[in-house]
Amino acid sequence: MFKTILWDNDGVLVETEQWYFEATKIIMSEEGFNLTLDIYRETFLKKNTGAWHLLKISDKKYIKNLRDRRNSLYSSFLKEKDIHLPEVSNILQQLSQTYKMGIVTSSRKDHFDMIHRNSNILQYFDFIITSDDFTNSKPHPEPYLLGIRHSGYHANQCIAVEDSERGVIAAKNANLFCLAIPNELTCKSDFSRADRILKNINEILEFLD
């Protein structure tokens, strides 16, 4: 039935989301705001609105500076922290023999390149879509609509793998079958629209068998 697997990146293939949260939390704390996990989940992982508006700062240049500082700090984390999941490579190697595969991520291209500078998994993908390739990020369906076009198949022949509520919404609004794999940051999200909820990435092999 399925011909293509469209993978989210952060939180599914690599453990990076916690460091994005940490970088954002540090910068916002310097402005006197405590960015809790609940706030982060609601603003970043569900609505994709960001939380800068909670600082009540109207100066756009100042906010851009904060965002740039966050991105710089996040980049340093990507270079220093162990973000790779050892079991992912074997799973992707097996699936790539049967399915066409692509990554559909809201990550910036420069961050994506840092993330995978020392990974060995990009060899298993036929195409990669980052935020540089589309205008509207998840939960908008545009990233997945682009992924479907790149796959060369119809939506009902593609399956999406997500870890966040906004990702599931994007996939379902693109008429995709969607597997959700909650993690520590996203476990409190609403995954009711997902077609299946898996405990971990290893269960994908069993599901597709």
Structure summary:
Helices cover 41% and strands 11% of the residues.
Strand order of the largest sheet: 3-2-1-4-5-6
Form type: globular
* Helical percentage: 40-55%
Average pLDDT works out at 95
Q: How many structural domains are formed by the residues?
A: 2
Q: According to CATH, what is the class of the largest domain?
A: Alpha Beta
Strand fraction: 5-15%
The total of helices stands at: 8
Q: Report how far apart the termini are.
A: 11 Å
| Total beta strand runs | 6
Which stretches are low in confidence, meaning pLDDT under 50 for 5 or more residues running?
none
Describe the structure.
The protein is α/β, with parallel strands linked by helices. It folds into 2 domains: 4-15 and 84-208, HAD superfamily/HAD-like (Rossmann fold), CATH 3.40.50.1000; 17-80. It is 41% helix and 11% strand. It has 8 helices and 6 strands, in the order βααααβαβαβαββα. Strands 3-2-1-4-5-6 form a 6-stranded parallel β-sheet, covered by helices on one side. Helix 5 links the parallel strand 2 (100-104) and strand 3 (127-129). Helix 1 (17-29) crosses helix 3. The termini are close together. The model has no long low-confidence stretch (mean pLDDT 95).
